[in-house]
Write a structure and sequence with these properties.
Elements: H1 2-20, H2 27-35, H3 38-46, H4 61-67, H5 71-79, E1 87-88, E2 91-92, H6 93-98, H7 102-110, H8 120-130, H9 132-140, H10 154-160, H11 164-172, H12 179-188, H13 192-201, H14 211-216, H15 225-235, H16 240-252, H17 256-264, H18 274-289, H19 291-307, H20 322-328, H21 332-340, H22 356-361, H23 365-375, H24 385-394, H25 409-415, H26 419-427, H27 442-449, H28 459-468, H29 470-487
Antiparallel strand pairs: 1-2
Length: 498
């Protein structure tokens, strides 16, 4: 009986492994590959595991190692007889390795791996981005850089990766350039040396539309101004539309140096959204340069733009002016700087109908900062909303100015659960009796947003609230609305206890 049971178990195991795609003796090898355990992989191979086996999803072991970028496992499998010409879903192992670190491709080439028909340009494009040794070996073995380059251009891949060495090697091997595609790829590379080389090689090729804005927006560690000036000297002054577009990008990257350059070349500050770009880009600039330098750069950009006739209330592509962006982001110093430079505290645009105080009611930054501080067990930072409100009111913001729905800042603050802002607006004389186009007062709006606990007649919902922890959130939100309704002189509706 014991023998029968053992045989039955073995048959079941064989069937399960067959369904999973892994032979019983190879399961340990599959686990070692998955775990990246070199010792266990070596032990499995020494114990007779098949190096040409497959993982549970049908991927050849060699390909699985390549996908993981596991160089030791790739070498071990090849050393134990893995087929270097194995393929997966129609793609050779060598092609897949060409897109990985250099040692992967070199290991396969050392074992005689070959590409499949039609893979030449794709493999070279992959190696051109990050595997110079593999690229050199592929070319030495006769891989043709022109075969299939219409769809996968290795020269363009090298340009976009900023790999000037790979580009030059491919050109020496006979790769055929397409100048316009190469210029576009080089501009995307964020590598000034790459762009210089391409423009020098093809001095008569036209630059693509939007090239200057793309260059201005490059994430380059090198100063951009000198080589932008060099390109312009070689190619001539860009068209007005190119300059204006690039000026907006210079604002977005908060670069006074480039703003000054573009204005000097004739960019029209009055036709640009660069001021709104400065407000949008300040946070990213702060992460790169620190608080003090980023703000100094932002102010310098605003001063340059103002002196050149920029409208401080010009909207961005979303229709938002700089002040609305700064107010919602609670950028206190930038709000002050914009107001000092003529931004309208009551300004709206065709697509952005909330004046400054109404925009402030929709900021989430103080709430998020307080929540994060609570989760980290520290005191919340000092709220910035009151200071922004003071700046707007002092600059002449109309307390009861209405938006397109007839709502005042008090309507917005009451609906958005902002008790401190409600209190400040009332102190400044906001009219609590005004009704919007729906006939609602600020208190009506607050009541419409008031969260309610499930009643006794809905035990399932009450249980969910208790288990999920939503009860505390609802109670806190109720408290904010209760404070608002009290400030507005309105009673709080009765609600079931949590």
């Amino acid at each position: 009986m014991r023998l029968v049971v053992s045989a039955s178990f073995l048959l079941l195991l064989l069937a399960a492994c067959a369904r999973a795609g892994t032979a019983p003796g190879d399961a340990g090898l599959a686990r070692a590959l998955e775990a990246g355990d070199a010792a266990a992989l070596a032990a499995a191979l020494a114990g007779g595991a098949n190096p040409n086996g497959r993982t549970g999803d049908g991927t050849p072991f060699l390909v699985a190692a390549i996908f993981r970028g596991d160089v030791p496992a790739t070498r071990a499998l090849l050393a134990h007889g893995a087929d270097p010409d194995t393929a997966h879903e129609g793609e050779s192992a060598l092609l897949l390795a060409a897109y990985g670190p250099d040692p992967l491709g070199l290991a396969l080439l050392d074992h005689g791996a070959r590409l499949r028909r039609g893979e030449d340009a794709r493999a070279l494009a992959g190696a051109a981005t990050s595997a110079p040794g593999t690229l050199a070996r592929l070319l030495e073995t006769g891989v043709d850089p022109t075969r299939g380059a219409e769809e996968d251009d290795p020269l363009a891949a090298a340009c976009e990766a900023g790999r000037l060495d790979a580009y030059r090697r491919l050109r020496r091997a006979g790769a055929e350039p397409r100048p316009s595609a190469l210029i576009e790829a080089a501009i995307r590379s964020d590598a000034p040396a790459m762009v210089d080389a391409i423009l020098a090689e093809f001095p008569e090729s036209p630059l693509p539309e939007g090239w200057l804005a793309s260059v201005v927006g490059m994430d380059s560690a090198e100063p951009l101004r000198p080589w932008i000036e060099r390109w312009i000297a070689a190619r001539g002054r860009p068209a007005a539309a190119e300059l204006d577009d690039a000026l907006g990008t210079a604002g977005l990257v908060v670069s006074p140096d480039l703003v000054e350059l573009l204005l000097g070349l004739g960019a029209n500050a009055g036709a640009s959204d660069a001021s709104a770009g400065v407000a949008t880009g300040l946070d990213s600039a702060r992460e790169e340069r620190g608080e003090a330098q980023a703000f100094a750069d932002a102010v310098a950009c605003l001063d340059l733009l103002r002196a050149a006739g920029a409208d401080p209330d010009a909207p961005n592509y979303e229709g938002r002016p700089a002040l609305a962006i700064a107010v919602e982001d609670l950028e206190v110093e930038l709000v002050a700087a914009l107001l000092e430079r003529g931004a309208d505290p009551n300004g709206t645009t065709a697509r952005w109908r909330r004046p400054g105080l109404a925009s402030l009611a929709h900021s989430r930054h103080d709430g998020f900062a307080a929540l994060l501080a609570s989760e980290e067990g520290r005191e919340p930072p000092v709220p910035r909303e009151p200071r922004v409100a003071e700046l707007l009111i002092d600059a002449g913001a109309e307390i009861d100015r209405r938006d397109e729905r007839g709502r005042t800042a008090l309507h917005h603050a009451a609906r958005e659960a902002k008790p401190a802002l409600v209190a400040r607006l009332l102190e400044a004389g906001a009219d609590r009796s005004l009704r919007d186009l729906d006939g609602q007062t600020p208190a009506d709006g607050a009541r419409s947003r008031l969260p309610r606990m499930p009643g006794e007649d809905d035990p399932a919902a009450r249980a969910f609230v208790a288990v999920s922890g939503l009860g505390g959130i609802l109670v806190a939100r109720q408290a904010r609305y209760a404070e608002i309704l009290s400030a507005l002189g309105e009673p709080l509706p009765a609600s079931p206890a949590p």
